[in-house]
Design goal:
The protein is α+β, with helices and mostly antiparallel strands. The protein is 18% helix and 37% strand. Strand 1 and strand 2 form a beta hairpin.
Length: 177
């Protein structure tokens, strides 16, 4: 009898292991299916910020967005442009069907450097006659001297919280002659 009892314990233990292995093999495709493969969401670049991320050659536009006060028809483009190449480039123009974009600064994008855009930065973009309100999206087209142009759909955010200090730069006063 002890021999038979021992054989059933071994068989029962082996059966449990077999069931456990089978359960893992059945569950594995279900658990991995959402994130596996070459086209998985986790393998794609994304902007862990409010703004958008876009690339053109060696240029990377990071966290680009528009900040506008509620009820205002003026917005400020905020973000950064990183030139990851060994040659300088230049932001030649920025346009939008949702308003008139005025660039200030020379648009220089030095090699291996980042340039900030916002209120009071050497390179700034202000959108006047803005036709969309905070919470909507706006389409920006950035044209460069060397890199291919970029078209970016980005958010218009309210001028509150973290963005409360981003205000349009005052218009330059006419110079006395």
């Amino acid at each position: 009898m002890p021999r038979t009892r021992h054989a059933s314990v071994v068989l029962s233990s082996a059966r449990r292991r077999g069931v456990g292995v089978a359960a893992v093999l059945v569950a594995l495709p279900v658990l991995v299916g959402c994130g596996g493969g070459f086209n998985a969401t986790t393998t794609k670049p994304y902007a862990p910020s409010d703004g958008q991320l876009a690339n053109s050659g060696n240029l990377r536009v990071q966290n680009i967005l528009v900040v506008a006060a509620d009820g205002s028809t003026t917005g400020v483009v905020s973000g950064a442009i990183a030139n990851r190449g060994n040659a300088r480039d230049q932001l030649v123009s920025m346009t939008s069907a949702d308003g008139a974009v005025a660039l200030t600064g020379n648009g220089a994008l030095p090699a291996n450097a980042s340039v900030l855009m916002g209120s009071g930065t050497p390179l700034a973009a202000t959108i006047t006659n803005l036709t969309v309100k905070p919470g909507a999206t706006v389409r920006l087209r950035l044209t460069f001297a060397h890199a291919n142009p970029l078209t970016i759909d980005t958010l218009v955010l309210p001028q509150t919280g973290y963005y409360a200090s981003i205000t349009p730069s005052p218009a330059p006063s006419p110079s006395a002659t």
